[in-house]
Amino acid sequence: MTEVDTETLEVHPITFPPQVLARISPELSLQRHLSLGIRPCLRKFEEFRDVHINQETLSRYNLPDELLPTANSGILGSNVLKCGKTFVITSITGGIVEETLPVETDNLGEEELLDMSEKRDEISKYASVFPIVEVERGRVGAPTDEEMTVSQKLHDCVLHSGIIPKSALNVKCGVRTTDTEGNKTVFYPDEQEDDVTLKQLQQQKKWAYVLYAKIVVFSRTGPVFDLCWNSLIFALRNTRLPRAFIDERATDLTMTVRTRGRSATIKETYDILCDPKKSVQLKLVEPKIGYASSYGLIDLDPEAQINDDEDEDMDQPSSILLADIDTEAEETCIHSTISIIGDSKGNLSNVTLVGGGAKITPEAIKRSLLLSKQRSSDLSTRL
Amino acid sequence: MNPEGIPFEFPDRVFPGQLICPEYEVKQQDEVDLVFKFNSGQGTRFQSFKYDGTTVNAITATLVGNVKITETTCDSTANADQKASEEKLQSQGEVRKRIVKDMVVSVAQNDISETKCNVNDDFANNLPKEDDIVLTRVTRISLQRANVEILAVENQAVPVDSGIGSNGSGIVAAGGGSGAATFSIAQASSDLGETFRGLIRSQDVRATERDTVKIIDSFKPGDIVRAQVLSLGDGTNYYLTTARNDLGVVFARAVNGTGGLMYAIDWQTMAVPSTGATEKRKCAKPF
Amino acid sequence: MNVQDRRRLLGPANARPIAFSAEKPVVEEPEKDQDKQESISLRKGLIENSNGSSLIEVSSKDRQFSLMASVYGPRALRGSFTSMASISIQLQNGSQEKYGPTQLREVATFLTSVFNAVVNRSRYPKSGIDIFVYLTYDRDLSQSSSSNISALIPHCITGITLALADAGIEILDLASGGYHNGNVFSFIKNGDEITGFWKDEGVSNDISDSLEICRQSYIRYKSLMVSTLMQK
């Protein structure tokens, strides 16, 4: 209602259907919803989307046993997470990398030295996964900024939260022997402690598994980091590592390789293969596992309120904390965000605060930490 | 579902490829032959079928939805044609009179027709075509023209996938950013090629004093403009006009988008209620 | 690939993918049971940020797979004026990287030619319709010959048709197809018109047999599609 020169002008409002208004002015649409105490997705302010998960359906270890020997699927763990209308498919695949350190050295001094330096660097004890996030949005070509930043953040957060100790990825290599009749058998040293003869076959090499994660997000309706993180954690929790072995003939094979006519280098190649049947569970540090949730803060615009009673505006809070940001309107209009990875006991492994819109108050942070605990305890019971 | 006594049943709900009706149908009524000529409208198409060795033209559905039949009032030329044909037939010794009724058969997608009863002709997924009213956002202005991107066709469903969020051209949001945060938004949304673009030439801004139009006093980047499609234009742009009272800026924020919402106080001024500041725009029907 | 990909986290360069020791496959007696009764479930409209989408899950005795099709557009095209929509179809591997890029592109080209004939393209000037098919999972339960990509084509066609109908894009008819001995036929109009023919293997003299078998499965898929589309 506008006043010009004491003369009152009645402004004829132009009305639009809600979905058109949401498109042409998401900000106004969001503010109108919030003033009614509801969000555009019809959730309450601190309400999370429900999460459904589906474990292991894609994993090779979900196959019936008789098919395992011939299955060529390399998926070691998987998760399908459905959150609201968005769903995330995570599949964990693996690789094997040769480490430069020998498995057992007689040189105790060197080992001690290594230990000392490792203690200084806490992070080097832990490994991470290499995620590739793909958000399906009907486009082809190079990954978008979002896909790159989410991938990098997932990688860093897994590393720094210390979920996967490096020791969990060490390959305890077995040896395949061929007896005189041509029958091949695989021995794993750690399975048969008493067998002394196998000790001699122990290789002077060390291998480690490398874990890759392919995370595909379908039906993106809002920010995806927390969905990707939760899906990745669920997938890692059911990841199984295949037992690996090398052939006894290869235990100390060396080859001379000439690279580009320059100096001859010696490369030792081992044909390391994985057992199609036997596998061990990936050992995660359970107490360090946390789940992610996101929050946003938005200032209420006093002009956009729909209130018959003008006085009611006075005791309304000026900014609102919204949990689990979703929908286009919230994503484009909320500039102050809080992203938390933590467990149900309140142990945090990552907190990201981004200001830019509403002021992030200590109360808002406290509140979101509390909500994050509740969300984590809910998610951790899903397995 | 059988208006004006068409002598056969129309299917109620159809799926693509389903036959709806033949091109012509005759009904004998008292002294006259009622001839129904069916034309294909939205969501339908003529297809020829071989039936008993003859080729029959028939209307089939191309969408899932409910069949709607509307009678069109024939314009004068069509009437003249019909009269001519009637005369011709009479001269051949035809005694019976014949009335031709033109019907348009269309298919309306269910979810829209049921939820929005107040709007008449809304079909999902219609591209802007001539004479459509569209809602656009101004992306760039120059002395001669304003470039806009088309956000929605009025009275029609909003396509889902050309939004900001779903295609990641928004500002970085919680926990990692989205697509084009390295660009400014205006550039990103036009450079990603997501939306249909249009342009309003300065002579199409208003109907009177067309030579003295200043684009800068009519539109600012970020304004939401209600416009009408003049032509499909070239490969890139639709040509739009706001030369009508009900066309022009419908939403604008003061101070180039940083201030509050403005309301039109006359046909070329908008004001911010809280501060009283005014800015010039070509407003759509303020009163 | 000699250019290093800096946009993705690829992990250590010297890592080798896990290779499973190839055990000699269990020699199965080639049981040619013709009652390959596959059960299909169709769903539509599950991908929120596309205009239309569909999910197909097929499980038969020797194969289980599911694929998702999503339709984006009509979208604006740049460049010169086009009076008809141009259709592009992309096939994407799911979590198992099962098929090579050339194989996928070949199938995508075939599907594009099928749908050029099916979509009412003149209704969409100046625009492009982008269709994505995501092969979510694909699991062989036996080493039968039907484990190749050709057997997926009819389901791709069904999925895309369903997604197009869900998106409200005008199509002339519900297209689908069938697979038999390496031959794929795609039909419209109750099997009276063939919109595409794909041949990958097998001898050429059994085409007419295949045609009839493919037509039967087309009619089966079509009735499934109709019931999926017509339910509220």
Automatic annotation (TrEMBL), chain A:
Keywords from the UniProt entry: Cytoplasm, Exosome, Nucleus, RNA-binding, rRNA processing
GO molecular function: mRNA 3'-UTR AU-rich region binding
SUPFAM superfamilies: Ribosomal protein S5 domain 2-like (SSF54211)
A Gene Ontology term for the protein's cellular component: nucleolus
GO biological process: exonucleolytic trimming to generate mature 3'-end of 5.8S rRNA from tricistronic rRNA transcript (SSU-rRNA, 5.8S rRNA, LSU-rRNA); mRNA processing; nuclear mRNA surveillance; nuclear polyadenylation-dependent mRNA catabolic process; nuclear polyadenylation-dependent rRNA catabolic process; rRNA catabolic process; TRAMP-dependent tRNA surveillance pathway; U1 snRNA 3'-end processing
InterPro entries: ExoRNase_PH_dom1, Exosome_comp_Rrp42_subfam, PNPase/RNase_PH_dom_sf, Ribosomal_Su5_D2-typ_SF
Domain of life: Eukaryota
Domain Exoribonuclease phosphorolytic: 47-242
Cell compartments where the protein resides: Cytoplasm; Nucleus, Nucleolus
Alphabetical list of Pfam families matching this protein: RNase_PH
UniProt similarity note: Belongs to the RNase PH family.
Name the record gives this protein: Ribosomal RNA-processing protein 43
Gene name of the record: TDEL0C05620
Automatic annotation (TrEMBL), chain B:
Sequence ranges assigned to domain Exosome complex component CSL4 C-terminal in this UniProt record: 127-232
Residues forming coiled coils: none
Localization in the cell: Nucleus, Nucleolus
Gene Ontology biological process terms from the UniProt entry: exonucleolytic trimming to generate mature 3'-end of 5.8S rRNA from tricistronic rRNA transcript (SSU-rRNA, 5.8S rRNA, LSU-rRNA); mRNA processing; nuclear polyadenylation-dependent rRNA catabolic process; nuclear-transcribed mRNA catabolic process, non-stop decay; TRAMP-dependent tRNA surveillance pathway
Gene3D superfamilies, alphabetized: 2.40.50.880, Nucleic acid-binding proteins
Record keywords, A-Z: Cytoplasm, Exosome
Identification of the protein by name: Exosome complex component CSL4 C-terminal domain-containing protein
Organism this protein belongs to: Torulaspora delbrueckii (Yeast)
Gene this chain is encoded by: TDEL0E00460
TrEMBL record, chain C:
Biological process, per Gene Ontology: exonucleolytic trimming to generate mature 3'-end of 5.8S rRNA from tricistronic rRNA transcript (SSU-rRNA, 5.8S rRNA, LSU-rRNA); nuclear mRNA surveillance; nuclear polyadenylation-dependent CUT catabolic process; nuclear polyadenylation-dependent rRNA catabolic process; poly(A)-dependent snoRNA 3'-end processing; rRNA catabolic process; TRAMP-dependent tRNA surveillance pathway; U4 snRNA 3'-end processing
A GO term, aspect molecular function: RNA binding
Location in or out of the cell: Cytoplasm; Nucleus
Family as reported in the entry's similarity comment: Belongs to the RNase PH family.
Gene: TDEL0F02890
Exoribonuclease phosphorolytic domain residues: 39-170
N-terminal signal peptide: none
Biological source species: Torulaspora delbrueckii
Name assigned to this protein: Exoribonuclease phosphorolytic domain-containing protein
Compositional bias annotation for Basic and acidic residues: 25-38
Keyword check for RNA-binding: yes
Stretches the record annotates as Disordered: 1-39
